[in-house]
Amino acid sequence: MGKRLKSSRYITGFDGLRTLAVIGVILYHILPQSLPGGFLGVPIFFVVSGYLITDLLIQEKEERGFISIKDFYLRRFRRLYPALLTMVLVSSAYITLFQRNLLVNIRGIILSNVFYVYNWFQIKHHESYFAHFGGESPFTHLWSLSIEGQFYLLWPLLVILLLALIKKKGMIALVIFLGAFISALEMALLYHGGDPSRLYYGTDTRMFAILIGAALAFVWPSTKLRTQVNIGHRRFLDGIGTFALAGIILSFIFTSAQASGIYHMGMFFFSILSALLVAIVAHPGGDFNRLFTNPLFTWIGKRSYGIYLYQFPVMIFYESKVKVGNHPILNAIIEIALILVISELSYRYLERPLQFFDYRQTLSVIREAFRKDTMHMPRRYALSIAGLVVMVALIGALMQPKSNQMQANPVQATIAKNQAQTKKNNQTKAKPSKKVQANLEKQLTQKQINQAQNMSLTAVGDSVLAATSPSLQDIFPQMYVDAQVGRQVYMVPDVLKNLQAQGHLADTVLLVEGTNGAFNEEQLAQIMEVLGKRQVYWVNVHVPTKSWQNSVNKGIKEAGRKYPNIHVIDWYDYSNGHESWFYNDDVHPNKVGTDKFTNLVAQKILK
Fold it and tell me: Model's pTM, two decimal places?
């Protein structure tokens, strides 16, 4: 591996930027209601990576007269690959032993991460970033590492080409920025509402953040920024930094990952804001490098890769065993502590040692560890455990279910089947089957049955409604259903407006919302502004595996007190303690639970 460049400088404040980014991402995933825009930490990571990598490549070209592709690839491999491979194999081994419902597509998951194309694997298999239930994957977040891996593979070649073809660095920056704009424009043009996972995962629609950082490196080289500046320039730099930091923090607090504005250039402008902060932190003449440099930020920043890497396995495996909804803060603290401990172990015993390890000595190290007279017992134990993990992970890959993903996941299979039936029912008049009619006669009076058959009703909701809608339409054949996986409460006003414009918004409305996140009074007011004096029946949530369960149910209860035409259907209290009513995710009603859910809704609406 090549020697360190003489002209390069380590920008300590970048550890602070990584800290800001990883805190946003972790809080977004663990306590999304506390920081709904925390997902924007990923564009910060992208901008920092684009800037640093490009800056180093330019320095190498200027100092040595060439860019060593081999050395670049080796540096990236040593820094990133061991921890990624370890996380994937350990998680796969855990799944094989303790959570086999997640073995679906495990071979493809392992291989696509090995070759840094997992984001395209997710797109091909229609995996949603926003569907939080039904076998949520511990690998979901690795899409971003695949995008960075693809960038690392191609970027040094493109930098060499750009430097050869275009002499002015400002012009190169303009060309790169144009590429970033095209990427963001593609995201905007392809967004048509609904689940934006394709845009969220796509290299083509997410590359703009990395390219913005790369463009910055050509016009703001870290080694050519003046250390000494006059007080006017310093105040100007600090002013820009303050503006950018304030914008980032406000975006973390008030933005949502499913807001349409994010995909209509919002994320692009946020990336520009991030680039401004990167530029100010990189400048040695301002105060922001010092502001972002302290022992805590340095510790977190240096371990930010591991923290990001291990967050999802910890959360998914922990939350599958512990019902975090009743004590969200306590469980969030436990999860964060586990992530930090694992990240520290990874950094100390895996990432740092292997970053400088001579892989040509691998076989001799293994032979030495297993010699009878060796004193390297810890190394022998470590290698033995590693071998066992690899073996179990490979067994899991061989055990991958032969059936397709939808068949292997009963929740997704049910929802897919129900959505097709619901679409058909919406276009025709559903008729209750003889079995449903018999059940109705047991649960409802004849007067209620007649009322249900003739009641005009609109149902709007998330995946819980999607899982139960055909059963509801059997009882209420005039019901029009609009259910979408991953839908959150803030999206409901626009849905209601569209239904109203199409003539599908009845005088009685059933809301099955809150499964995917909390809501605030402003969002509630927007819903009621559309609904007006319509009678609203709002089913509260049973999501014991998510931190927002109690806050959502409290919000729905308070909404019922504030608005006399909101009637709360207490599904949580009715179903709590009846685990046999739910699929394994403890959220979506199974066949038994669907009957209970439908009966409860019918009794409340028809009483």
Answer: 0.86
